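Entry for the shared binder. Reason: the reviewer on the internal report wants the predicted structure included alongside the sequence.
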Amino acid sequence: MNLEQLRGFVAIAEIGHFTRAAETLHVAQPSLSRQIATLENEMGGVLFHRARGNITLTAAGETLLPRARRILADADAIRVEMGELAGLQRGRVRLGATPTLCVSLVAEAMSAFHRAHPGIGLQLTEAGSRLLIERLTAGELDMALITSSEGMPTGEPTLVRTPLLTEELVVVSAVTTTPIADSALDLEQLATLPLIAFSDSYDLRATTDAAFGGAGLEPTTVIEGAEMDAVLRFVERGLGVAVVPATVALDRPSLRSVRLVDPQLTRTISIAHRSDVNPTRAAAAMREVIVATATGLADASPETLRVVR
């Protein structure tokens, strides 16, 4: 078995076609077919069901696919780490983060990191916490910034998860509209306001839905299913209010935020990495920047953000 065979196998599994996979890998299709035949001989089993225009994985292929992805990810990490022996002049950091963090903590941290280490490439994956945990476990990310609310599962036990911040969820409205409250409002008051709700894929949506359901309340939803950028734009244009993490409302002069009480909803921001992989120098440097940035955000907004000690 070699890495080229595994790359060919993964490409075919993802694309579902030998010829198109060969084109993606810039190899001749007969050469790719021979690599897969050799791999199947070494594995002692057929990896693909071959039908005209329809290539699917066998049970053996399904078993090999996640392991092959992990081997390739580890090989890439080794190359990056070897390239860093000359210092933080080159390399790559693969960071995952949730959409709400990408518009706040991640934007600040990546900006600071790039200024300090302009030769390090940054690769960002934006997804929900559950998908980020899957990709981190598969070796596709160096680290991930994930979020969790009370009662949510903690994820893979093979991951090291370090809590950074606890932040409140706040209610935002447009500064051009009448203030919805002086400083805070409760869930019953929120239920009477026009609410812009996130997509079902957001953990944030599950948290707010659970709060309304637990209180026996039905929100007055005017728009639902939107992503973060769209939700903020709708609020800025006065279409309604939204429940967002406190960090999202920072440095947004077009939004007014008030605290949500009775109940107070919070979430924990954590940084996670695989327990069986030592971080590269570049990844370790990025982690330090993220921790420093999180601390700075908490210092700037002590009422709604608290560092986890």
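Summary line for the report: The chain has three domains: 3-80, 86-163+268-298, 166-267.
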